[in-house]
Amino acid sequence: MSADADTLPRVTAATADVTPPRPFLREHWPWLAAILIAVVMPWFFFNWSTGRHSGFVLTMLSEIGLMTIFALSFNMQMGHTGLLSFGHAILFGLGGYCTAHALNAIKDGGLWLPTELVPLVGGVGGLFFGILFGYLATKQRATAFAMITMGMGELVAAAALMFMGFFGGEGGVSTNRVTGVSLLGASYSSSWQVYYLIVVWVVICVVLMRLQTMTPLGRMANACRDNFERAQFVGYDPRMVRFYQFMLSGFFAGIAGGLYAILYEIVTFDTVAAPKSATALLATYIGGAGGFFGPILGTILVVLLQSGVSLLSNAWLLYVGVLFIIMVMFAPGGIVGLIGAHAPIARIGRLRELAVPYIRVLIPGLFTMLGVVALVELASFTTIGASQGKKLAVGGLAVDTATALPWIVAAAALLLGGFWLRREAAAFRRRWDALMDEAKAQGAAV
Amino acid sequence: MSDVAISLKSVRKSFGATEIIRGVDLDIPKGQRHAIIGPNGAGKTTLFNLISGRFPVTSGTIALNGTPISGLAPHEINRRGLSRSFQITSIFPRMTVFENIRCGLLWARGYRYSFWHLLGRQKSLNEQSERLLERLNLGARRNLPAGLLSYAEQRALEVGITIAGGADVVLLDEPTAGMSHSETDYAVSLIRSVTEGKTLLMVEHDMSVIFGLADVITVLVYGEVIASDVPSRIRANKAVQEAYLGTEAA
């Protein structure tokens, strides 16, 4: 058995292993740039006259950070192992509950743990429940797995309202992150301190999850996703691959939950509920499950919609839904897939030729979008908005939703824009196909 | 006892009321290149699926190197030194050619479910994968997603994944099916070289491949072995000619 290919006669000399080492900066600059942006971002919203950070922006950025970990941990199952989970939030939420209890214990003096390491409690909690739920769920794959995780999600959400001791019922578990125990002497009473703590944990988790894809388990997870039967016949038990992957994914989801507990100082049952699981799924799909980066982009977009657009519109969830459907229908590879599709054209150096077709598509696209948004907003203001006593105003101009004119304008924008878009889209496709054929002819397709 | 690599004792397999394998006894000595032939529907692939653990046997026993393996899961059988390829190409299409080969090596090299080894740093593992890739003539394709290889290249890759782990018993299910003449010739020489010193059991339709490679041929007709002998005597066997060669070779 161990007499492997090493003992076979060497036909050719071993070629130099993989690519020559590249300078660290050259290879990792996008990562470093992302970290830099994360570090300086709050300062763009810093109010220099009052000397205060914007609490809203800091919370939103913190949310992006922890949801990035959550979405990436979800993608450890979905994109990398081919396991679609409908109950991923239970690992996140349970990690959060564990963290909230740990914080309270630290506060009471029953436990000593510096705040910087408290997210690890969430991680260990997530790991524990990952083992527990993963052991059952990973016995199956594909649809059966999805159904089991959905059932588990419902089960935990129901349990959260029943077991008061651990879950605190409807009110959840409140906590206080200012425990007075810190390695760095930080109090974490202000949100910028929490934000930077989250940034550090995001960097650690993203790096670890990235490295995990380059390990034997990470690769065999891909192999089981591609062809679980083949994986069996190279000696791997696909069930165990799924199990370990699920378990590790639980660890990272738990850390995200731990950061959530520190950020909001309360963990309620909606951290384990289905909409939370759906958020990870949406972010991963919109960003692209195929690559490692996809979920990060998707998370940024979804959280911006969630925190930003939800301030402006009652119908923000509808926009997320529409975006999701459009992505699944027209760009199953997500944003990353869309960008990646340009690679062959970029390789033959003719990306520039797409600029004009893009602009020609974007203009009617914008019209169509405005039409849709206007109709949705008009509808939402006549129903929910009216009951909330809100009035629709566009650029300071009050719009009376009871008159016909705004509806006609919106419908016209949608119809004309849509019609125009169809024509331009066809022209765009022709140009795209021509450039793709050219790329294929030059052998730059793959 | 331990001179026999694969031993089948009155193996039967039924799907519902239909008995596909109807009592097969077969001993394949270590180091032999053994071919199974037979008309379509004779149960050749089913026999492979039974030996490799893909399906459980209905009755009878299968032993690998003297120890019974019937009832074991495919990965357990693989870990005991039996590896197989599939009639319909079975690779990891979204992973690169290099990764495909490396996946075939991981378990045998003892990496198990490790999530603490970085594959890029496993020098000897990577070199071994690289060497095998060169032997398969796929070196130039190493970074291509395996699903984009030509058909013949995918078949060669599958043979590579199959033998990568160093199993002593190799089962190949129609390794040259659908190949052109030159591709077939190349595949035969490849199979001959990579299975040197190993026990090879193969299902094949191409008579030139069989008579070129096999030490012993077993003829399976409707789930029963009607002959098992060296190629020259199989060729002369009346029953075989009637059941199989007579119709196919005509």
Plain-language structure description:
The complex is a heterodimer of chains A (446) and B (250). Chain A has 446 residues and is mainly α. Chain A folds into 2 domains: 27-332, ABC transporter involved in vitamin B12 uptake, BtuC (Orthogonal Bundle), CATH 1.10.3470; 343-441, no CATH class. Chain A has 16 helices and 4 strands. In chain A, the strands form 2 sheets. Chain A has a two-stranded antiparallel sheet. In chain A, β3 (393-394) and β4 (397-398) form a beta hairpin. Chain B is of the alpha/beta class. In chain B, α3 packs across α4 and α3 (97-106) runs parallel beside α5 (151-164). The radius of gyration of chain B is 18 Å and the shape is globular. Chain B starts with a strand and ends with a helix. At the A-B interface, α8 and α9 of A face α2, α3, α4 and α5 of B. Chain B: This is ABC transporter ATP-binding protein. Chain B: One of its GO terms (molecular function) is ATP binding. Chain B: InterPro entries: AAA+_ATPase, ABC_AA/LPS_Transport, ABC_transporter-like_ATP-bd, BCA_ABC_TP_C, P-loop_NTPase. Chain B: Keywords: ATP-binding, Nucleotide-binding, Transport.
